[in-house]
């Protein structure tokens, strides 16, 4: 990324964001699997289930 002219700090922050997006994605996937195993049925409108997901 630095070869494209991005400053060091910006390149570091971009890689950090990408890493944590992957971590959050894995956590969400794990949470959905565990909820499904416990009998929760996902509905089409997820904002109605925000209290359950929280």
How would you describe this structure to a colleague?
The longest helix is centred in the middle third of the chain and has 30 residues, at 8-37. 0% of the residues are buried. The protein has helices spanning 8-37, 50-53. The protein has 54 residues and is an all-alpha fold. It has one domain.
Please supply descriptive tags for the structure shown above.
elongated, 54 residues, 63% helix, single chain
Query: How does the helix and strand content classify structurally?
Result: mainly alpha
Count of domain modules: 1
Distance between the termini: 35 Å
Strand composition percent: under 5%
- Relative helix content: 55-70%
Mean pLDDT rating: 84
Helix tally equals 2
Along the chain, the helix and strand elements come as: HH
Describe the secondary structure blueprint for this structure.
Elements: H1 8-37, H2 50-53
Question: Quick gist of this model?
Answer:
This protein has two helices and no strands.
């Amino acid at each position: 990324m630095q070869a494209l002219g991005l400053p060091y700090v910006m390149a570091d922050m971009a890689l950090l964001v990408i890493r944590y997006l992957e971590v959050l994605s894995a956590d969400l996937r794990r949470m959905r699997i565990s909820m499904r195993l416990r009998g929760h049925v996902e509905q089409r409108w997820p904002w109605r289930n925000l209290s359950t997901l929280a």
